[in-house]
Design brief:
Length: 67
């Protein structure tokens, strides 16, 4: 009887472990995808801002030459 109880408990623990492991693996995968998307957006934003700064510097040089 005790062996059956131990086996049942172990089986229950294994099922819970498997379900938790799968859920956490999915959550990690989702987080990695989200962070990748954010990194790509930040890279695009940084390029846009860098391009805008370069353009403004060019305008400053042009206006200095006109003065």
């Amino acid at each position: 009887n005790k062996m059956k109880t131990v086996d049942d408990n172990l089986g229950s623990i294994e099922k819970e472990y498997s379900a938790t492991k799968e859920r956490l693996e999915n959550e990690i995968k989702e987080m990695k995808e989200l962070s990748k998307d954010k990194e790509e957006k930040w890279a695009k934003d940084m390029k846009t801002f860098t391009d805008e700064i370069a353009h403004m510097r060019g305008q400053v040089v042009t206006h200095k030459d006109q003065l």
